[in-house]
Amino acid sequence: MRVHNIYADETGETHFRDIEIEWAEEGPDGTTSKRFPAAGIIFRKTPGDWHFDWHTATRRQYVINLDGSHKITASDGETRTIGQGEVILIEDMHGKGHLSEALGKLRHSILIPVDNDVGSALGDTLRSPSSTYWPE
Question: Could you tell me which Gene3D superfamilies the record lists for this protein (predicted)?
Answer without folding.
Answer: Jelly Rolls (2.60.120.10)
